[in-house]
Amino acid sequence: MLTRLAFRINTQLERYFPEQRLFLKSDHGTRFVRLRPATQAIALVVGTLGLAWTIVATAIIMMETIGAGSAREQTQRQRVLFEERLAFISTDRDTRAEEAVRAQERFNIALAQVSEMQEKLLASEDSRRELETGIEVIQNTLRRTIQERDEARAEAERMTLALNQQGGGATEMGRIRDTAATLDYLTGALGQTARARDADAVETAAVREELASLALEKAALEARNDAIFAKLEEAVTVSMEPLDKMFRAAGLDPDDLISSVRKGYSGQGGPLSPITASTSGSTVLSTDELRANAILKELEEMNLYRMAAFRVPLGMPVKSSVRWTSGFGGRNDPLGRGYRKHEGQDLAGDYGTPIYATADGVVIHAGWENGYGRLIKIQHAFGIETRYAHLSQIRVEVGQRVSRGDRIGDMGNSGRSTGTHLHYEVRIGGSAVNPVKFIKAASDVF
What we know:
Layout: H1 2-13, E1 20-26, E2 29-35, H2 37-165, H3 172-249, H4 254-264, H5 287-311, E3 323-324, E4 329-332, E5 339-342, E6 345-348, E7 354-356, E8 361-369, E9 373-379, E10 384-394, E11 401-402, E12 407-411, E13 421-428, E14 431-433, H6 435-441
Antiparallel strand pairs: 1-2, 3-6, 4-5, 6-13, 7-12, 8-9, 8-11, 9-10, 10-12, 10-13, 13-14
Helix pairs in contact: 2-3, 3-5, 3-6, 4-5
């Protein structure tokens, strides 16, 4: 059966592949090998498949080689772009830091000007009170002088009437002597009264001139006070707007912060206490006193803003040059443990780079914690907490009170870390928030 099938196959293929004989000659004789049509067809198919496989394999190898070169070039270009982006971000951060320093200097200058203007305002208020007292004394003197002049005139009229009523039974000589004496007395009294009147007129004119001068001086003082009030109001507005924007950019309510700080300082007085009554004894405050009270209230709020700013973690925990690596949010775990939430901002730098507190607070943890490595936790006001992880050295202790800018540790690579960096967290009420919002919010103020 198989022999017949093989014969038929060879018969069909013989038209395309005639039977061939391969002769092999040697010293002992000649032999040949017969190549049947089926054998030739099999050899041709095998050779064709081998050639096709060789071509395909070569093409695949060439494509992989070209693709690998392109991937390397693309990776190199991406690395160059990434380095340029990091350099740009570092330069921009340095620029923002310089702008923050300049903004802080402007804020300090404005605060100094506000203090100076406040002193001038208090001095001008004292001068105004002294002028009011002087005007009141002059008015009392003028009223007393006019009253004395009227009394002298009334006395002269009474004496004249008494002289006219004298003398029915006196002798002629007695009447003459009495008349002469009366005339002399009246002449002296009238002369004295005239001199007193002239002196009163001169004094009245001098008082009127002084009153006019005081009125001009008072008007000039009011104009100067108005200019001082305008400057103070402008300075307070310019100083408070950046602070208000800073807190709102960090996701904090300025009103709640101010209320919390005010509760901590309730019952305290000082130079910013409001004016309660004018110098004249009236319970109704003047327009200037009302403006002064409004400015004092705004100055008090600005002072509360300043105290709140030092209690909120605003700014960078690292002052030297760093690279921004993993940000807040989800990311692939660098140790290959899948997609995880990253609750802070990573800042890569040199080993041992100083780490600083970003706000006033109390250290509540300073030691090793799984995952974080060497970790520092600082509790701030308003329920805010900051964390500084993967440190190489801790320079504070639990219970220690720190201020903004105090050095608390050094950058390292402890815990679950793939390189030297700082893991910085900000938490409000125990929940992690994006710390970049706090860093950027203070870029135009500190």
